[in-house]
Amino acid sequence: MQTPSLFLLPAPRPQNSATSRKRFSSQRVNSPMPRGTLLLPLLGLSLALPSPAALQEPLAQLLAVGPEGRGNPEAAAAWKSLAAQATSADLPTLLAALDQANPLAANWLRAAVFALADRAQASGQPLSPALFADFLKNPTHGPAGRLLAADLLQQIDPAAWDALVPALLLDPVPALRREPVARLTAAATAAKDPAQLRQALDAARDEDQVRAAADELRSLSQTVDLPRHFGFLMDWHLLGPFDNQARRGFDTPFPPESALDLAASFQGKETKPGQDPTIRWIPYSTPSEFGVVDFNQPIGMFKEVTGYAATTFHSPTAQPAEIRLGSKNAWKLWLNGQLIFGRDEYHRGMKIDQYRFPVTLQVGPNALLLKLCQNEQTETWTVEWQFQLRICDASGTALLDPQRPPTSPAALAGKK
Amino acid sequence: MKRTSFLAAALALAASSAPADWLQFRGPNASARGTGQAPTSFQPSDIAWKSPLPGRGLSSPIIVGDKVFLTAASGPAQETLHVLCLDNATGRKLWERRFQATGRTMCHEKTCVAAPTPASDGSRLFALFSSNDLFCLDLDGNLLWLRGFTLDYPNASNSLGLASSPLLADGVLITQIENDGESFTAGLNPATGANLWKLPRPKNANWTSPTAWQDPATGRSLVLITAYEGVLALDPHTGKEQWSLPKPGTTITSGGIGDKHFAVPRSGKGLAVYSLVGGTTPPELAWESAQINSDTASPVLQGSRVYALNGAGVLTCADLATGDRPWKLRLDGPFSGSPVMSASTLYAVSERGLLQAVDTTAPEGALASKLDLAATILCTPSLSGNSLYLRSDGFAWRLGK
Questions:
Q1: Domain range holding A182?
Q2: B148 contacts in A (CB within 8 Å)?
């Protein structure tokens, strides 16, 4: 089973950057490949950035940290060396090193940057806001370094940060869009300006900001298509119920896991004595504007059951993408027959983008299969047997199937 | 690391931490008992300082010498993790390190990513977050090592949030990452962060924190874990089971440790008190009562008594040997944090920020004083010297001299 990558992935590289991926380890973490194509971060390889010679080795050591504490002792020594040698003039080098860092190495580098900033401040050497502003404005740098530059700029020169904010409205790093989206939404709301609100909505990537702009637009009698904005997959075939007694269904490979045949019929779980347990795939389109697919609707409100959802996503090109899933039921997810991940957790909550999986879509049809298990709990908050799934790029921008049907009137009307 | 090294580390720990330090969740051995005397009658002038914090947190402050350490989380998804060091004398921020979460940050709205309390061995700080990120820094903010358990074990998470605080026992850093997925408890080398052992645990979410008990006969510690499946005593050096108790504990409320007793809140309701024996001999049940409940707040043991605070805010005092209940006292709740004790005064802070001091020597127990801090406070207070420490999502306080 492929492991999920980071659940807080760095935002995407700019459109013209490399999109290949490096393996954090053979079975662990994918993260976006840094600028350039060198897979350098292992010992003995030099750093592909213009760092002073004295910083090359310690930076390489920090970039080499890996899972289960691998490389920590070497990184600690390197960090100490870096902290002793680096000056505020080296901050761009440290920020740029984040372009090549895995998530653990990135935290080593963040700590070094903050320590360096503290030292400069303590010694009465003010940091240059221009240094951070320039770094932030350079879209060839990756999200981690630019976010850190933004963080430091806000600290040392709020006015400079304030002046930069409007230009970040369509930044490829979603986190950098938050402040300009918030400002635009507030201004447009005050002015009751649908065009500006639409601009804010188009720029927004986080659920709370999307909701805020959408609510204001609807209050002005404007149509909002949230399924399309997010890229929720709305049209599915559902199958169930199979058994999930004692939660064994999660690891039981029912027939759809070996062959996906939407015309086939199966022996399902007998939910009432004497009832014919034959089950078939049921076409189902969700009316929810957040793409919530509720098995309870077409299948029935059962306990200790397993269901499957299948759909096809047509991709115009072979492309990197993210599948983003939310569910409070145990689940397994396959793309084109390959198991992506599974999680055996029940009723601990569901939210948009709860799980994120970087994948590569093939050109043409891509088959998605989701297994969704309902357990034995009987509390009122355990009724849900549902999920929401969308396909987007790493920034959260929807990728849309060219064959996607128009959004239903119910979803356009804001049905939850 | 060899056992002799651990003993050396334990001796070093004893040498490097002062008696007044409060080095982890609920203090020494997670006993919730301080060594000084915090204020027993609150006045607003008792607030030595109140310092702003950059993000949310349920974690308690810990105190090492002249420094106070806290954690916090900020950002739309609580993805920014803060480790802070304040000057104990003034509350002034001495340093802050900011990291980004590498694991899931989804939490129930009442908890947050900065739920686990950090721990220290007197020279190093171990800051764990619900995102499964663990950072080790020295007391000056220099990063010594880090771990990202979700990167290592991708199914080790809880969509409601993790909350168990790390514990140092005999020089081993214990992290309890028990959840519905890849559930485990691990012993880490505090010098490098590497796993010394990793014990698979039942696939059940568990928000309790481990407790340590030092066997007076051997001077060695046992790590006590309460879970739905029962109580487990581990050798901190190996992770090997020393004994277990089959009756279930809660998955929310941590056990309470005394010199010779261990109080286990039961699943559902009730409290059981065990007499600890030592070695691999399981403890003996002293008594069990369905009338004494610790719903969220963990019990505290002192001298011959156990104090349990239930969901309705009723504080019950019971005799450790017999289970007799000399008194009950209704406090102003509800409570998320656990009570702590300084000398004979018990301190509890309600979710509404009402700090209450209880004189446990009064025949019926008595509310000695209260102070409205006018903030939502979900943390467990910390004690050091003659001071008490608290935090909300926005501020940290020190009360007392």
A1: 169-224
A2: 67, 103-104
